[in-house]
Amino acid sequence: MEKLEKKTFYTIFSIISLFIVISIITFNVQSYSKEYNGIKTNLTRMNMMFFGGPNRKPINQDIMFEDLNDKIIMDYDFYTFILDRNNNIIHKISHNENSFDNKIINKANRIIANNYKSNIKINSLYFSDISYNFRSGEYLVIVDTSNIRYRLSSLLLISIILLGLSEMLVYYVSKKITKWITDPVEETFNKQKDFIADASHELKTPLAVMMASIDCIEVNKKNEKYINNMKSESDRMNNLITKLLDLSKSESGTNKELYTMNNLSKIVEKRALVFESLAFENNVSINTEIEKDIMLKCSKTEIDEVVSILIDNAIKHSYKNSVIKVSLYKDKNNILLDIINNGKDIPRDECDKIFERFYRSDKSRNRDSNRYGLGLAIAKNIVNNHDGQIKAFSKDNFTTFRVVFK
User: Fold this and answer.
1) For the chain, does the N or the C end have fewer beta carbons within 10 angstroms?
2) What average pLDDT does the chain have?
3) Quick one: which H or E segment has residue 349?
4) Is residue 222, in this structure, part of any structural domain at all?
């Protein structure tokens, strides 16, 4: 259920956020493009406006400076410098209400000194204060873009602030939508859990009576076969009900305030020792590599169960005469429990599914093994209750179940 809520929330949050981010980026790009194109258009038109187009006559000192002085460029602060053939400034024109200052003159001198070829240069409007059109031996036109830089930077800053506020609103809205979508699913899921728990409890008592009654029946040659079948099936049903109750308990969570510090190394070592006899019966052996005195705040009973489930699972799925490796060690800030067995690989697309209730990779459903596909689901719930992670992966006939605790 938690996984569904996270997926739903992140999907909604990502879609809305992506739309907002694209809208803001598009708006800023369009604003920048508008300013950029405006500057470029005016710079390229200077040739036509002041010098009569591509068939103009070369600039000379007889040019009518008075006519140029009357040229006003709206929305931009333009400055024109008339140059002689040696690129010396012979006349300065301000096409706005601002007069020349040393800053503009110094920039003009640097541009003339550092440029040998005619070109139009539009610098980044977010970082530069000028752009220019330089034609060697004729003219230099400078546009002061400091106001544009201020406008675009302010717009970008406002956009970032709006994006932050929008993301806060999107987070809140996404939470509400997620709750609205997942509430019916959660209600159904909770009803299913309650049904499993209630049904298991209701079956427990009559099953106990049946098993006690079977034990009281006198066995003879005629009824021995039937009584043995009844006992076998009763044991299977009792085992299933116990597993269902364990599953229900693990899904309901635990009170973490009751967790205590326990020596995880001793818990794992003891569980491995207990299963050595079962491993021997299945012609496999267990090797342990356990770091000493690794402490974990946990429920000792539940961690016992997790380790038991994983070792039992490894024994049941190991090849004959193979070795099961049980490792417990620290890795930076994490505690890792690895249980590795040599057996048939788990298909990659099933490595997550095996932790689902009633799921079994073995489709044959061998009744003799008394396996119901609940053990790994119980183990996963317990690990999640301890804020840990459990995963499985297989390669070259070696399967690893890894539990990570913080």
Assistant:
1) C
2) 82
3) none
4) no
| pLDDT(323) > 90 | yes
Tally the domains of the chain.
Answer: 2
Tens digits of residue pLDDT in 204-235: 778 778 778 887 887 787 788 888 888 877 87
Residues 258 and 147 in one domain: no
In a domain, 189, yes or no: no
Single residue among 151, 178, 203 that ends a domain in this structure: 151
User: Which residue range is the domain that position 332 belongs to?
Assistant: 254-405
Among 125, 151, 177, give the residue marking a domain's end: 151
Q: Are 128 and 145 in contact (CB under 8 A)?
A: yes
Both 142 and 264 in one domain: the answer is no
Residue 115 within a domain: yes
